[in-house]
Amino acid sequence: MRYAMRNIVALLSALLLIAGCATPPDRAAGASGGTEVWWLGQSAMRITTPTGKVIMVDPWILGNPKTPAQFKNLDALGKLDLILVTHAHGDHSGDAVALAKKNNVPVWAPAGLNQQWQTLGELPAELSPRMNKGGTISPFPGVKITQVHAEHSSEILWTNPVTKKQETHFGGEPVGFIIEIENGPRIYHMGDTGLFGDMKLIGDLYKPDLIMIPIGGHFVMNPRDAARATREFLQPKYAIPMHYASNPFLVGTPQEYMDALGNFPVKVFPINPGDKLRF
C-alpha cells in the first residue's frame, strides 16, 4: 500500500514537470514557483530555486564531452549565486575556480579541498569557505545545504605555474549534498560514490524527494548497486541518473538502472545533457 501511494503521488507530481531539450537557463525559473534542474552531463547540475537563486553543482563544462557544444562556454551558465563541489577530481571541480572568480561567489566543497585551493593560491579565503560532513549552511532564505558522506577518493591534479609540471595534491574527503529548498524538492546530489550502508541513515534523516545518482560503474555505483540504494536506502519520489557514458569505463546506462529497479515506484528521468526539468 505504501509503495502504491508513493507511485500515485509520484505520477501526479510528474505531470507538473517540464523537460526541455538543450535550452538555455531561465534566470526567472522561480517566477512560476517551481525549481528548475538543468543537467549538463556527468554530475554538473544547475539548480534554480523558486526564489530565483542559482546553485551550480560539480561544474565540469569546458572539458566535458557530454556537455552540448552550445553550452561549452561559461557565459552560457548565466549568473550563479553559489557553487557546490563534491570532490576534487577534474570531472567535478573542473570549472569551479573560474566560475567562482567570474561570478564572485563562494565554492562550498570538502574542507580539505577548500584549504588546498587556498594553499595553492587558486582561490582566496572569501571564495573558498570551509565546511565538513554533517555541517549545514543556509546561504539564502529558504535554502539549507548539508554535506553528507560519499565513498570515493579526492585528489587535485594541479599544474605548477613555475615548473609547468602536473602535481597531485590531497583534495579532502568526498561528499554528497542534501539541498533543502522551501516550496521545492529536497535534493540529494550524491556526487561520486560507491554503495555504503549509511545511505540508509541519510535516507532516514533527510528523506530526499529527488536523488541525482551516479550509475556508470567502475569509479562509482553500477546500475544494480544504484538501484539497491534507491529501493532499500533512499526511497525517493524521483531520480536523475548521472555520471555515465563520459568515458569508456562508465558503461552503466539509465535503462539498466530502471530495469534493476523493477517495480519500485520511483519516477526516473533518463534525460539527455542539456535537458531541463522543473519541479
Describe the structure using short key phrases.
single chain; 279 residues; alpha/beta; Metallo-beta-lactamase, Chain A; seven-stranded mixed β-sheet; 16 strands
Helix-strand layout with pairing:
Blueprint: H1 2-14, E1 36-39, E2 45-48, E3 54-57, E4 82-84, H2 90-93, H3 96-103, E5 107-110, H4 111-119, E6 130-131, E7 136-140, E8 143-149, E9 155-159, E10 166-170, E11 175-181, E12 186-189, H5 199-206, E13 210-214, H6 223-234, E14 238-242, H7 254-261, E15 267-268, E16 276-278
Parallel strand pairs: 3-4, 4-5, 5-6, 12-13, 13-14, 14-15
Antiparallel strand pairs: 1-2, 1-16, 2-3, 7-8, 8-11, 9-10, 11-12
Helix pairs in contact: 5-6, 6-7
Can you give a write-up of this model?
With 279 residues, this protein is α/β, with parallel strands linked by helices. It has a single domain (2-278), classed as Ribonuclease Z/Hydroxyacylglutathione hydrolase-like (Metallo-beta-lactamase, Chain A), CATH 3.60.15. Helices cover 22% and strands 25% of the residues. The chain has 7 helices and 16 strands. It has helices at residues 2-14, 90-93, 96-103, 111-119, 199-206, 223-234, 254-261; strands spanning 36-39, 45-48, 54-57, 82-84, 107-110, 130-131, 136-140, 143-149, 155-159, 166-170, 175-181, 186-189, 210-214, 238-242, 267-268, 276-278. The strands form 3 sheets. Strands 6-5-4-3-2-1-16 form a 7-stranded mixed beta sheet. A 7-stranded mixed beta sheet has the order 7-8-11-12-13-14-15. Strands 9-10 form a two-stranded antiparallel ribbon.
